Amino acid sequence: MPTTLTRPALNAVPADETASRPTSPTIQVSTMPTPIGPLTLLVAGGIVRAGGFTQDVGALAGRLGPEFTSAALQPVTDLGPITDALRAYFGGDLHALDTIPVAQPGGPFRQRVWAALRTLPPGLVSTYRDLALGFGGPGYARAVGTGCATNLISPIVPCHRVTRTDGALAGYFWGLERKRWLLDHERQHARHAY
Predict the structure, then answer these.
(1) Is the pLDDT of residue 9 over 80?
(2) pTM of the entire structure?
């Protein structure tokens, strides 16, 4: 009997390939108490995608990139090493946040700003102008400010360590009182760390 070859349907997927197809990502959600209010973190694939001093998960999730639009939210009480690092930070170990993996949506310039923020030593502050000089000149100060304002991962990406040129505290998404507290906390513990 002759063998007949048939063409598979265009949308057909071999059974052995369906298992490897990506599914919607799951975002772990954890809220922990801190001295300045609840801190909620959104973590996908072991990487912090958003964090802030709020219990409003929707406010954080709504700012994530399109790849997380249909992500399932999974509440967890503890994020293991991430939670441990944050507890250590609030307990005075200012470098505990340095190794937490982070990723947030944004273009190349903002990615550079956020990377630069993570190099700022705790206990010290920089200015928008000083950071702008590292990007090519004082004309970049406004763009650096926008990078700070759009940072989704507080306090791990420490935009709170940036002030105006005159040293005054400028906007902080989670409130100037929290920014002041974080800076005071870091100054106090930095004296003992170095």
Answers:
(1) no
(2) 0.83
* Cα-Cα end-to-end distance for the chain: 84
- Structural class in CATH, domain 26-193: mainly alpha
Q: Where are the domains of the chain?
A: 26-193
Task: Give the C-alpha separation, 68 to 26, whole Å.
Answer: 8
CA gap 156, 152 in Å, rounded: 9
Report the C-alpha gap between 111 and 115 in whole angstroms: 6
As a whole number of angstroms, the distance between CA 165 and CA 11 comes to: 58
Q: What is the residue whose two structure tokens read 């929707």?
A: 58
Cβ atoms of 47 and 103 within 8 Å: the answer is yes
Nearest to 49 by CA among 145, 159, 40: 40
The residues annotated with a catalytic role in the active site are 159
In angstroms, the CA 81 to CA 87 distance is 10
CA 149/CA 28 separation, integer angstroms = 24
Q: What tokens were used for 20? A: 């490897």
Q: Is residue 134 within a helix (H) or strand (E), and if so which, with residue range?
A: helix 128-134
For residue range 153-182, list pLDDT tens digits in order.
Answer: 999 999 999 999 888 888 889 999 999 999
